[in-house]
């Protein structure tokens, strides 16, 4: 069983991703060509929610934390892939945060 300190890096990465996704989501809604960003808007919103849920699960030391983190990895990879299709700075920052979160979560899940 992991404790909160052992989850710390993953929790921080999830929170950073949640914040980056929320910034990207709001910024996409303010863009001129919003139709081009439709999938990005959808995925950033979903990724923010799942990243937040993963951080909360680890903080609570949920017995399902690893499974939730596995979902977070998948979501972060999908979100990063979509954000990388766009040239906006907020999309680039979001993709970077998502890639980092997926890697940190993967390392945590594989170590256990």
Quick overview:
This protein is mainly alpha-helical. The protein is built from 4 helices and no strands.
Describe this structure in words.
The protein is built from four helices and no strands. The chain is an all-alpha fold and 112 residues long. Helix 1 runs antiparallel to helix 2, helix 1 packs antiparallel against helix 4 and helix 2 (38-59) runs antiparallel to helix 3 (65-83). The N and C termini lie close together (9 Å).
Number of helices: 4
What overall form do the CA principal axes indicate?
elongated
Query: What class, by secondary structure content?
Result: mainly alpha
Strand content: under 5%
Weakly predicted, low-confidence segments: none
H/E series: HHHH
How much helix is in the residues? Answer: over 70%
Mean pLDDT: 92
Number of strands: 0
Question: For the report, how would you describe the main beta sheet?
Answer: none
Whole-number radius of gyration?
Answer: 14 Å
How far apart are the first and last residues' alpha carbons, in Å? Answer: 9 Å
């Amino acid at each position: 069983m992991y404790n909160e300190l052992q989850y710390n890096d993953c929790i921080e990465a999830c929170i950073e991703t949640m914040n980056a996704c929320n910034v990207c989501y709001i910024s996409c809604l303010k863009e001129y060509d919003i139709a081009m960003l439709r999938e990005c808007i959808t995925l950033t919103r979903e990724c923010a929610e799942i990243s937040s849920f993963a951080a909360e699960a680890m903080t609570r030391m949920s017995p399902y934390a690893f499974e939730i983190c596995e979902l977070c990895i998948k979501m972060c990879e999908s979100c990063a892939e979509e954000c990388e299709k766009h040239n906006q700075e907020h999309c680039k920052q979001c993709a970077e945060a998502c890639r980092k979160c997926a890697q940190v979560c993967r390392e945590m899940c594989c170590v256990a």
